[in-house]
């Protein structure tokens, strides 16, 4: 029997002399710094929007689900691959500009025959959280599950949907 819980939290990596630094975390940190240098004009860096900080642990067949985040003119969409889960197994919440997707999967198998008895159980859960940009209208967020894919639609506010205003650049005198 395996019971796994994967928490998504934003935490600084701990580096000790007995452990080598996590290569992927180091790579992501370097890439984040690179993007921060290009978005240093007073605007938030893109990495802070929907910023999932993943912690990977033993999964016992229940990995952190893969997600895609897309943006259109009127909305953002988050799609998560959740094969084998049903609507009752998934919890989507919004609190304090954070969207959280949680789920739990249970597998039980019990076979009896004349000369053997097989009993298997596996349990697992996941949790992913995303910081929402200010452009999202939290009151209108919807979620739907179809064929093992969860689609969370995050409509933009009316203000965010307005076309960008072009500002003319004039020569200084």
Protein described:
By secondary structure, the chain is mainly beta. The protein has a domain at 3-8 and 49-158: Immunoglobulin-like. Helices cover 12% and strands 36% of the residues. It contains two helices and eight strands, in the order βαβββββββα. Strand 5 and strand 6 (117-131) form a beta hairpin. The protein starts with a strand and ends in a 12-residue tail after the last helix.
Keywords:
173 residues; 36% strand; 8 strands; elongated; single chain; 4-stranded mixed sheet
Produce the secondary structure layout.
Layout: E1 3-5, H1 23-38, E2 67-71, E3 75-81, E4 90-95, E5 98-112, E6 117-131, E7 142-146, E8 149-155, H2 158-161
Parallel strand pairs: 1-6
Antiparallel strand pairs: 2-3, 3-8, 4-5, 5-6, 7-8
- What is the annotated CATH architecture of the domain at 3-8 and 49-158? Sandwich
Q: What's the number of helices?
A: 2
Question: Unreliable stretches, pLDDT < 50, 5 or more residues?
Answer: 1-20, 40-45, 53-60
Structural class: mainly beta
The CATH topology of the domain at 3-8 and 49-158 is Immunoglobulin-like
Strands of the largest sheet, in order across it?
1-6-5-4
Large-scale geometry: elongated
Beta-strand content bin: 35-45%
Number of E strands: 8
Question: Using only CA atoms, what is the Rg?
Answer: 21 Å
- CATH first level of the domain at 3-8 and 49-158: Mainly Beta
- Overall pLDDT confidence: 76
Strand count, sense and closure of the main sheet?
A: 4 strands, mixed
Instruction: List the secondary-structure elements in sequence, H or E.
Output: EHEEEEEEEH
């Amino acid at each position: 029997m395996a019971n796994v819980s994967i928490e998504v939290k934003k935490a600084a990596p701990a580096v000790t002399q007995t452990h080598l630094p996590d290569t992927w975390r180091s790579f992501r940190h370097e890439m984040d710094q690179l993007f921060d240098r290009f978005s240093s004009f007073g605007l938030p860096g893109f990495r802070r929007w929907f910023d999932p900080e993943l912690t990977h642990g033993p999964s016992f067949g229940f990995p952190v689900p893969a997600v895609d985040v897309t943006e259109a003119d009127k909305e953002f969409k988050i799609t998560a691959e959740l094969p084998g889960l049903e609507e009752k197994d998934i919890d989507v919440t919004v609190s304090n500009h954070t969207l959280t997707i949680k789920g739990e999967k249970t597998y039980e198998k019990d076979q009896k025959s004349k000369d053997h008895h097989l009993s298997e159980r596996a349990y697992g859960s996941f949790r992913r959280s995303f910081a929402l940009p200010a452009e999202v209208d939290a009151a209108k967020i919807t979620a739907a599950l179809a064929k093992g894919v969860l689609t969370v639609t995050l409509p933009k506010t009316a203000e965010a949907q307005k076309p960008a205003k072009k500002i003319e650049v004039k020569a200084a005198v």
